[in-house]
Design goal:
Blueprint lengths: L1 H14 L4 H15 L1 H11 L6 E7 L1 H10 L4 E4 L10 E7 L9 E2 L1 H5 L12 E7 L23 E8 L7 H13 L5 E7 L13 H10 L33
Protein name: Endonuclease/exonuclease/phosphatase domain-containing protein
Keywords: Signal
Length: about 250
Amino acid sequence: MAVFDSILLHLVSLASPDGKWQALKQEIVNTLLLQKDARVVDVLERSYADADCVFLQEATARFADYAESRLADRYFLVRPAQMSANNQNSLLLLRNSLFDKNSVSELTSHAMSSLESQPVAAGDLLLIAVSASSTQGTPDTGAAGTIRGATAPRHFLIASFHGDTNGLATPAVLSAVDSVAKQQPLSTFLFGLDANTHSAGSKKQQGFAEFVKMFDEMGYSSCWGDDAGAGKLYTTFNARTFLQVPLYTP
């Protein structure tokens, strides 16, 4: 690490001998790390203000506390009973006026019991049963993230999941959660997942097309349609270099 740090310091000193790189570094750290929680909640408050159910993944315990406090007038937050040792947790934000907080029952362990051989750690999956609020009529599953209307399910099974980097555990997790869903036929199932599927599948990476085919055959669809955007929608482009320094979450 000392050699690595020395090389980085030498390179930035050559590129910016006046030391301006230090101010740039501090700006990046402030924006992407030190103020990350506040900026994420800003986005939730503005861009996702109409969402009734928000699925979050890879969230720290600190963020969970912060979001729960700041968004308390709009949502209640659900976190796994067993949080992640690596501080990467799947969470749910459910609108206060539409869901009954007192009806929440965690079912994560029911799915995890069949995933012992998979790269799924505590905190990666959150699975709950929850009922609609009795004071707000019956919500309905409408546009992506919204659950409103006059004709509606009263009971929901809701899951949030973050897959491993190569997405290899994603099919097994879907199957495990599907098994739990089949035991609750009167509940509407909502699943927000970071599947980590890849453009081209292989033995080491879960392919996008293969996963779409799987959930189609199981009778599920996505908020982008049955074909999930037909491989035209991307969320991540990795361009790793030997000198790329990650910003670790404290």
